[in-house]
Amino acid sequence: MADDIRNQVSRPQAEEAVRTLLRWAGDDPAREGLLDTPKRVAEAFEEWFGGYALDADAYLTRTFEEVGGYDEMVVLRDIDYESHCEHHMAPIIGKVHIGYLPAGKVVGISKLARVVEAYARRFQVQEKMTAQIADCIQRALQPRGVGVVVVGAHECMTTRGIHKRGVSMVTSKMLGSFRDDARTRSEFLKLIEMQAGR
Fold first, then answer.
1. Which residue of 103, 173, 181, 184 is 20 to 30 Å from 164, comparing CA positions?
2. Band of residue 113 on the pLDDT scale cut at 50, 70, 90
3. In sequence order, which residues have a C-beta less than 8 Å from that of residue 167 and are 6 or more positions away?
4. SS3 of 194, please?
5. Which of 18, 23, 25 is nearest to 40 (CA)?
6. Phi then psi for 108, rounded to 5 degrees?
7. How far apart are CA 165 and CA 144, in angstroms?
8. Largest alpha-carbon pair distance within the chain?
9. How far apart are CA 111 and CA 29, in angstroms?
10. What is the full DSSP assignment across 51-79?
11. Secondary structure letter of residue 121 according to DSSP
């Protein structure tokens, strides 16, 4: 669907939209310093919002079952991400922590980071992105449980509006044993070392 929407707008139309915003902001898009800005903004948008062209579920299709009977928690923490708030188009920058309890199969850890990228590189609400990542892992791996914690600094709050710096938002989505078993949840949170300032 995202590709269908993007294909309805040509690159020249996107660049003209940037020129319109530059004029609306009070500047002249024809001045030397801004001549290439529409092209650069369009290229940046292709990078920032490349997640619409990615299939997060596809990253988790190749799994491994020869794990020597390993059935303890798998945790990948401190996955950097950059996203954009869908309300103000302002950056959200932070970290994602993922854990799951395998039920006979695991996935390459780089694939977990790719799932984060697929969802982060879209216009987002942090709560929705947290749920999307957890639900994707649950669908693909069918583990005994999944835990996802996302920490984000929202520029829509720090550079406009209330202008509060140094704050971060924390969201979590716990499924299966991570939700139902306090010990599993506690082990996960301890492994990702959730504490002030992280």
1. 173
2. very high
3. 153, 157, 158
4. coil
5. 18
6. -60, 135
7. 38
8. 65
9. 41
10. GGG--HHHHTS-EE--STT--S-EEEEEE
11. S
pLDDT tens-digit series, residues 87-107? 999 999 999 999 999 998 999
Average pLDDT over residues 114-143: 97
Q: What angle do CA 107, 72, 62 make, to 5 degrees?
A: 10
Instruction: Report in angstroms the alpha-carbon separations of 125 from 6, 85, 89, 158.
Output: 21, 6, 11, 16
- The pTM assigned to this predicted structure is 0.90
Active site residues: 85-88, 126, 154, 156
How many alpha carbons lie under 13 Å from residue 123 in its C-beta half-sphere? Answer: 8
Distance CA 134, CA 136 (A): 5
Place of tokens 């829509």: 156
pLDDT band at 3 (very low <50, low <70, confident <90, very high): low
Among 89, 78, 11, CA closest to 48 = 89
Distance CA 105, CA 82 (A): 29
CA distance linking residue 148 with residue 96, whole number of Å: 7
Structure tokens at 97: 């922590």
Give the pairing of strands 169-176 and 123-124: unpaired
The gap between the terminal CA atoms of the chain, to the nearest Å, is: 36
Which residues are within 8 A (CB) of 86 and not within 5 positions of it... i.e. 6 or more apart? 123, 124, 125
